[in-house]
Every structure is written in C-alpha cells, then in structure tokens.
Design a protein that fits this description.
The structure is a single chain. With 580 residues, the protein is an alpha/beta fold. The chain is built from 21 helices and 21 strands. Strands 1-11-10-9-12-13-14-15 form an eight-stranded mixed β-sheet. Helix 6 packs across helix 19 (531-550).
C-alpha cells in the first residue's frame, strides 16, 4: 500500500472542507492559529469562540457546544494546549440535533504522549469516537488510551480527529477506476457532499494515482492505493483476477481492521474488492451500482452475469442503484428489501465553464451552422452512429451541422470510418478524452444522448444545468427525469430518421431551443440536489449502522463464499485471502 496524503495535508483539506459549513468554531490554544484564520476566510457567518490556555479545559470547549447544541461545531486544539485535557466530571450533553468535530495535534514529546492518552479518555467519556490521521492508514480508529499511546510511540507526532460515536463517522469507498469516468465523477460528488454536509471521514481506495485521484484529497478524503481488479474480461484473465484479489486483500484487510469503518462502499458492479474485504473483516457493505453492465457497456464477465448479480445481492447489506431502470433490470426481485434508488447530483462550477479549456472554445472550435455534442464512451451501444447518420441526413436537407464527439472507446475507428463512408468526415470532430467537457457543452446548440439504454445519463444532466436543449433515446435513466416536449425531445434508439427530424426542429426553432433549455434547467434545480444525493446516501448509511447494532448478525461469510456464489468455482480461500 502506498499512502499518498500526509497527516498534515489531510487535516488541512478536511478542516477547510468542514469549516465552509460550520455554524460555530472554537479555537483552543495560546494564540490565534491558521485554522481560526481559515474559518474567518471561508465562512463569514460562522460564530468563532476563542479559549486561551490557562485555566481552560477541553470540557469548557465541549460545554460551549453543549449549551448551544443545534448546528455544526468545529473545535481545534493546538499542540501547545496539552494541559486542557483534564479528567473532568461534568459531561455536557451534545443534543442529537447538533454535531461536533474536534481536531487536535499531539507533539512527539512525552508531554504529547501523555496528553493523547488523557484526550482519548476524556473524549470517549463524552461519547466520541477517536481517530488518528496517519500517512500509514488514513483515519485509524483508536479504541482506548493504550491504543493511542502505542500508536504515538510508533509514529511520533499525531494529528487527531474525534466524531460523536452515535453518528456515521468513518467510511471506506472502493473506486473502480482512477480516471474521471461518469461513475467516478459521481463518487467524487458523493464524497464531497458526505464530507462537506455530513462530516463523514472518507477514505478512498484506488488502483493508481492520477490527476483525477488528487481531487479526492483536495476535498478532504484520505487516499490509499491498492489493486482493484475487475471480475470481467477475457476468460484467460481469470488467473490474473485472482492474483490481484489476493494482492488487494493483503493490503486492505489489515487496513480496514485498523480503520474499523462504519461501512465499505463499492462503486460500480465490475469491482468486487470492497465486498471481499467487507466479508473478511465483518464490515457492513453497500454496493453502489451505476451501470447495467451488459446492455450499456457490453462488459464480458468472467462468469454468467446472473451469477455476478447473485453474488452482489448476497454480499451487500444495502444496494443503491443509480436509476429505477437499473433496479428493474438487475434486481427485479428484492426479497430482503435491500435495494433502493438514488439519483446522483451533478453540480456545475460556472467559473470552470468560462475559463477551463478557454483556448479551445473559440470561433474556430464551433463550426459554422448548428453544433451538436455527444459525450460518452465510443461504443455502438452508446449510439453515436445514430448521430453521425443524422448529420449526414441533415446536410442532405441543406442544414449546416457539425457533430462533436467527446470520449474514447473501442469503436472509435468504426465511427471514424462510418463518417468517412457517409461523406461527413469534415463535419465530425473526435475530441478524445476531455477531462472537463463542460466549457464545450456550454457553447453547443444541443446535446444528443443516443445510448440504447443509458443507466443514468450524466451528460444529460450537465446539459440541463447549462440550460442546453437535449435530445435523448427514450429509454433507461434519462427517461426518468426528462419529459418529451416539456424539457427535451425524444426519439427511439436506432431510429435515425426520428433523430434527424428532432434535430431539424431545433435547427429551425430558436424559441424551442430556449424553451426546452430553460425548462430543463428549472427541472434540474428541483430534482438534483445535495439532500437527494449525499443526504439520501447518508441516511442509507445511517440505517445500515443502526441495523448493524440492533439486528442479529448476518451469517459469517468470507471472500471465497462470494466468489463461489459468483460462479467462480474451484478457488479456495487460500488463493485469494492473505495468509494467517
């Protein structure tokens, strides 16, 4: 395992994220700290209380919050304030309507060691769960003063955070990919909302570092790298899959045992590592399913797809699908009532749409006539061939048009050859992988979504946010939030004539474009919100936590049980689990 986030930068990013939404901040120390200045800079509405070291104890800080329970309280204790950690008898009551996160630093001297032990005793008596921010393992849960002192002896100076024990406080998310795919953008938005709005400590597991994975650290999440193998691909890759499972478990099993998270969340159905580690560590597991798997991405799994779905269902305490269409297709029967639907939120930074890639968004980029955008993996199942053929028909009708394709994929050459055969090669631009296509979309006349069955349709929501009109294949996720003739135009996948006619209506109808764009933007503001996404996921995680405490324990499973249910037979636990 490679730890990428130092404890100092992790504390800073996390603190800054929480400070933006804190209702009140208490700074305990001898002088004004950078964190007090950071709160003033980021949150002018936050009430700031300063407690200088002297006769002040940490109980005084907690008492201030206890007397004013509503809202979110942020407390920072300086490393130079060791003496505040007293064994007080007064236990302020932190009301359930409030929330407190406490940060503290402990130096590498004996005084820091002693203060850490006292801090853990005091905070645990007040109902807090305690975590060390360590470059070795992100948010390491500390169960006792003895554990904390032992960790201090091994690592020296510690950055420390505490959260109320009665709340979901610490979750691990296993990502399937290290670039900014639609599913990863969804995960980034989710983690941002969980940290910012619900103060959850988040650790993200990814396979490789990249420019995209840095974004997790920038919003206050801890970042760990370990193998995240997919249980799909050519049959000959089965041995490689199992070797990578073993390597991943060797890294993640001891890590999760130290973190003791409230839950492990697996993002997308192609990567089973989160479920395997959850089984090995008896950690509640949630599977976030963001794709159909077969009809949208043509994914070849190592075993029959129905066996994969059975393993996903059996290995999860909860399953969240990105749309009702995905739920109906993959989990039509839900005997344990564990499947729910949460639409992802899609936020737009208006400044990014104006400045990022500005050099490319010029008059030379936007071709003469009507500019059409399609965003997504270049696959025939995504339907870009419909758009290419529609452009050819529009040109024959005397309508100057240009198609902009954003994305990469296995069918790039097929689409390029198709455009050439139809004589429209000069009217189709392949932009490749554009990390942020929003500046482009903001300049387009229309977005088309042509997939035969899109699980959600992130680019449709991005266009709605930008008040750009949308034409979509009337199936899958987009059909759940786009209304034909009200907020978009629709056609049947494969019906090129129908798509061409819809495009021609928009080419000739400026008023129609404006009306659809405005209506779609208003709909997006209502449907796609932080409470409906991060808030809903937080409530689901909270329900999992409560069920874990109140309900009988589920039958013990391990990694090999899950693989056997998936139809991957003949592989003993010794082949995938770390040695004892």
């Amino acid at each position: 395992m490679e730890a990428t986030t130092s404890s100092i930068s992790l504390k800073q990013h996390l603190f800054y994220a929480l400070a933006a939404r804190a209702d009140a901040f208490i700074d305990v120390g001898p002088t004004t700290t950078q964190f007090e200045d950071a709160v003033r800079h980021r949150n002018a509405a936050c009430r700031i209380t300063t407690l200088r070291v002297g006769d002040v104890s940490i109980s005084d800080a907690l008492g201030v919050a206890g007397l004013n329970p509503a809202g979110r309280w942020l407390i920072n204790v300086s490393a130079k304030a060791d003496q505040v950690w007293d064994q007080c008898k007064v236990r302020p009551q932190i009301d359930d309507t409030g929330d407190v996160t406490l940060f503290a630093d402990f130096n590498d001297q004996p005084s820091g060691r002693d203060a850490l032990g006292a801090a853990i005793n005091v905070l645990q008596s007040h109902g807090f769960a305690c975590f060390a921010m360590s470059p070795e393992g992100a948010f390491i849960r500390i169960n006792s003063a003895e554990d904390g002192v032992a960790l201090h002896d091994r690592l020296g100076a510690l950055n420390f955070v505490a959260r109320p024990r009665n709340r979901v406080s610490n979750c691990v998310f296993v990502s399937h990919y290290y670039e900014g795919s639609g599913a990863e953008l969804c995960l980034l938005e989710l983690i941002n909302e969980l940290i910012r709005d619900h103060w959850v400590l988040c650790t993200v597991v990814n396979a490789h570092p990249s420019e995209f994975t840095k974004k997790y650290a920038q919003i206050g999440a801890a970042l760990v790298f370990a193998p995240t193998p997919w249980w799909c691909g050519p049959l000959g890759e089965t041995d490689y899959f199992f070797s990578m499972c073993r390597a991943s478990l060797e890294v993640l099993t001891p890590l999760v045992q130290r973190l003791q998270p409230d839950a492990i969340v697996s993002q997308t159905l192609v990567n089973p590592v989160g479920a395997l580690v959850a089984a090995e560590t008896a950690t509640p597991h949630l599977w976030s399913v963001t794709e159909f798997g077969d009809v949208d991405h043509d994914i070849p799994f190592l075993t029959p797809f129905n066996r994969i779905l059975s393993a996903i269902y059996d290995s999860s305490k909860k399953i969240v699908t990105i749309s009702h269409a995905v739920r109906r297709a993959l989990f039509p029967l839900d005997p344990d009532h564990k499947v729910s639907v949460i639409h992802t939120n899609v936020t737009i930074d208006a400044a990014l749409t104006r400045t990022e890639n500005a050099a490319k968004i010029t008059a030379a980029t936007l071709r003469e006539g009507f500019n059409i955008a399609a965003v997504g993996t270049l696959l025939q199942s995504k339907g870009q061939q419909d758009a290419i053929r529609a452009v050819a028909m529009l040109l024959r009708r005397g309508k100057p048009t240009h198609l902009h394709l954003f994305g990469v994929g296995a069918d790039h050459d097929y689409f390029n050859d198709l455009a050439a055969r139809l004589g429209v090669g000069g009217h189709v631009t392949f932009w490749g992988n554009v990390p942020n296509p929003l500046p482009f979309l903001a300049q387009m006349d229309v977005l088309v979504s042509c997939a035969r069955s899109e699980a959600f349709g992130r680019s449709c929501v991005e266009a709605m946010r930008l008040r750009r009109p949308v034409i979509f294949a009337n199936a899958g996720g987009p059909a759940e939030y786009l209304d034909p003739e009200e907020t978009a135009l629709a056609y049947r996948h494969g019906d090129v004539l129908g798509l061409t006619d819809a495009l021609e209506r928009l080419v000739d109808g400026e008023d129609l474009r404006s009306r659809l764009g405005a209506a779609a933007g208003a709909r997006a503001e209502t449907l796609f919100t932080a409470d409906r996404f991060g808030g809903a996921m937080f409530r689901t995680l909270t329900a999992m936590r409560c069920e874990g405490v109140l309900s009988p324990a589920q039958p013990k499973t391990d990694a090999s049980d899950i693989l056997e249910r998936a139809g991957l037979l003949g592989y003993a636990l010794a082949q995938v689990a770390p040695p004892a």
